[in-house]
Amino acid sequence: xxxxxxxxxCFFFLYTAIITKIFFIxxxxxxxxxxxxxLQINKIYPERGKIFDRNLKPLVLNxxxxxxxxxxxxxxxxxKTILQLSEVLNIDETSLSAKIDKEKYWIALFxxxxxxxxxxxxxxxxxxxxxxxxxxxxxxxxSLSAHLLxxxxxxxxxxxxxxxxxxxxxxxxxxxxxxxVKSERDILGKPILLGSQDKIASENGRDLVLTIDKTVQEVSxxxxxxxxxxxxxxxxxxxxxxxxxxEILAMVCLPDFDPAKYYFFSESDFKNPVVSDLxxxxxxxxxxxxxxxxxxxxVMPNDLYNExxxxxxxxYKIKTWDNKYEGEISMTRILEKSSNVGMxxxxxxxxxxxxxxxxxxxxxxxxxxxxxQGEISGYLKSDKEWYPIDYATVTFGQxxxxxxxxxxxxxxxxxxxxxxxxxxxxxxxxxxSRKKLIKPKLVRQVISERTSQIIKKMLESTIENxxxxxxxxxxxxxxxxxGTAQIPLEGHYDPSKTIASFIGFAPVDKPIFVTLVILxxxxxxxxxxxxxxxxxxxxxxxxxxxYGILPDR
Amino acid sequence: MKYLIWFLLLLLxxxxxxxxxxxxxxxxxxxxxxxxxxxxxRENVELEKEISxxxxxxxxxxxxxxxxxxxKATPVYLxxxxxxxxx
Lengths: 553, 87
What we know:
- The complex is a heterodimer of chains A (553) and B (87).
- By secondary structure, chain A is an alpha+beta fold.
- Chain A folds into three domains: 2-33; 62-139, Penicillin-binding protein 2a (Domain 2) (Alpha-Beta Complex), CATH 3.90.1310.10; 214-265 and 278-546, DD-peptidase/beta-lactamase superfamily (Beta-lactamase, 3-Layer(aba) Sandwich), CATH 3.40.710.
- Helix content of chain A is 33%, strand content 25%.
- In chain A, strands 2, 3, 4, 5, 10, 18 and 19 form a seven-stranded mixed beta sheet that branches.
- At the A-B interface, β3 and β5 of A face α1 of B.
């Protein structure tokens, strides 16, 4: 009986102690009780998809980054914490102090803290200071493809969002889907195995493999940079594509921006001129009209035109660029000497209705649907708004506004057998479970194979017999056309400013590349033949070597 | 019979303690591997970044510049420098 009483008294004191402790925990220290007290729900952030060039060389990767936060209620000496953090972060104490509100429980101080700074902060072992793991974009080639790639910024909710270029267009594919982990944990954060464990796995963003060749992009950018300096141009673009498929091999415009530090640049810097800017193409437009006239059998390459002087159309007088007239010239010679009056003749043979019809067939006035954010459709007046002078001027590429991507896409149809192909930049979208291949897409047949062969020969002759002798690689067949377009300014053309351009392709028989070069307002010379053309040939020489193109002439 | 019941009870208590200790050890291991996995992931991201950097044209260009394998433009003076070149 005594032993029983002793056992009873022991158990009584044991249970009293337990109840007292629970009373202190739940009532005095107010720790909420219930089945969810141990349940932790954590978000699993997906990794943003990477971007590679066609040879799987990385253009955009992710790197480790941390978000620095503080819990002011847990900090005993806030001044000491501010002082130590300001030394490590290398910022003013006053600036840091202004971000801290002692009434708040949690404050995010800085994003994008790098590894070295993070290690220094951890070593300080400051109470109430913590770091959340994040990732941010890393560009191994810096601003090589800035306009093409775009950048990753924040939206109004503070979440990562892609803006411009590929980051903008493929934002949903690149972002991925977050997951969740529901896990019961003890006070030390270790899992309670007998408790509930649920997980919805995250899905990392899809990787993109581009049609872009990093080497060709690098060559283009270097050559463009040198040309802009040499010719003192305000801006320039180079676009290189495979005309058979309209895979974009390189796309670069200067000036550009640093996508890793986009916040130092203004919105006007982010716009990709290749898809978002309009320009009057000038003489590089002439082959399109010539090909249309040949396709409709209105003219043949050896037909003759009597170039005797300027052409008058109402109050307008259309002249050649040098005001020189050669008398009877062939259609090929019209292209060789870039005769505006000759092109007006070709346009008059084709007729206004067919001109408009072919402009639409070439894709002008509608977007190409290239997979880049920010593309505009250009402007094509409605049929009723065209006057005779408009039909005349459009034959030499004035009075119409196009984007560079529309121009190179339309031109490519002249040299690839007449097929208008949809331009694209992404060739593969890779997720963890599958790989989606994007194939070339035919939009429509614009001209026949026969017309394509004819116009290619004419463009080869334009290079061989052009007004200027360029440093053309010997033994290689190259076709192309120069362009010098005046810039419209408040209803008239500014005589001092031009857009110098050149569009070319090689080799002529089965072109491997087509290149459009645009230089805006070059100051050393306004002419495309003296600025854009030499740039084209410099790039062409590099491409001939890179692609191992054999001499064919 | 009484001793058998006490023995079984004792065995159950020991088994219970054993399972409890194992679950704590397992939880420790899980926690350890969670931390290790995150650490390895961060290391992989860092290594991938370093490999891509050293493989980049930007790094090659910077090394070429450092080793003097580039052309540097020499300045062209429009006015003769009287003091520097003692003209």
